[in-house]
Amino acid sequence: MRARVSLSRIKGILLASIAGVFAGCAPTFDVAKLEAVPESRPLIRQVVAHRGSLHNGLPDNSLPALTASARAGIRFLEVDVRLGKDGRLFLFHDGSIKKTNSVAPKNLLGRPVQDLSTEERAQVRLDPGGAVSIPLLSDALRALRGTGSFLQLDLKAESDELVDAVIALLNRAGAFERVVIQVRGQNRVARVRSSAPTARVLARCKDERSLDNAIAHGVEFVELERWITGAALSKAHAAKIPILINVAGSQYDEPKMWGLLRSRGVDLIMTNHAIAAK
Fold first, then answer.
1. pTM value > 0.85
2. How sure is the predictor about 3, in pLDDT bands with cuts at 50, 70 and 90?
3. 63-98: per-residue pLDDT in tens?
4. Which CATH number fits domain 7-277: 3.30.1390.20, 3.20.20.190, 3.40.50.2000, 3.10.350.10?
5. Is 35 exposed, middle or buried (0-12, 13-18, 19+ CB in 10 A)?
6. Burial (CB count <10 Å: 0-12, 13-18, 19+), residue 69
7. 267: which DSSP letter?
8. 270 pairs with which residues across the strands?
């Protein structure tokens, strides 16, 4: 059954949220536009585990978190992919090594994570017990083989070099059917399409123009970044393209907002509470 949501109550939550500073990449919707979106049915109904995690104590972007999410039946696992100076693709969200995101030797603190050598990166641990290391993308693909879960690859410090490295790895691993490549640059949608025609693409769209570009290239999914309109929802759904909204890490990441977004036709909700939001 479709969840019934009090718009007045949601509006209060949103107005309170707008006054604050939002964590991570959480969206900041225009309240009036969100309320004006006509009700509609999603094409699909899925959740996306933010940073691949159920946020139940396991480190983000780690193999234990990914396997736990897959075992829980979460199909879409968003992970943050970076290209190291050693040419390897690995999973890590932040741009540098900090006390708040890892356990590492003092000489590595403050260093850009992409500048670490293979040996230096191996010294970084993601948990206080020192048992969880920064995984390679190839390790994550192997860990999820046969689970039915997909990796949604958020390309950090997005560049042509990173896109090409990801496509090359997926070619070697024969893993295109097990990932969704998430890109923001409009020119990179075309780059992925030309280099890997069988790849599934999620285009991050900041406005109507980038949405039109994504639809023209026949992407499999679109994310509306920090905005939502009835026209955008209708346009994407007319092209049979599911829509993702990211609410992870914000005051929006709660049941009433999930219900409101779904009642407006949003297909995929990226969340820190993937089990509850299913």
1. yes
2. very low
3. 999 999 999 999 999 999 999 999 999 999 999 999
4. 3.20.20.190
5. middle
6. buried
7. -
8. 48, 246
Start-end of H helices in the chain: 7-18, 31-36, 63-71, 118-122, 137-144, 160-173, 186-195, 208-216, 230-238, 255-263, 274-277
Residue with tokens 């994550």: 140
Domains of the chain, residue spans: 7-277
Question: What average pLDDT does this structure show over 124-150?
Answer: 97
pLDDT confidence bin for 27, thresholds 50/70/90: low
Residue 34, φ and ψ in degrees, nearest 5: -65, -45
Q: How far, in Å, are 89, 97, 114, 191, 277 from residue 108 at the CA level?
A: 19, 7, 12, 35, 37
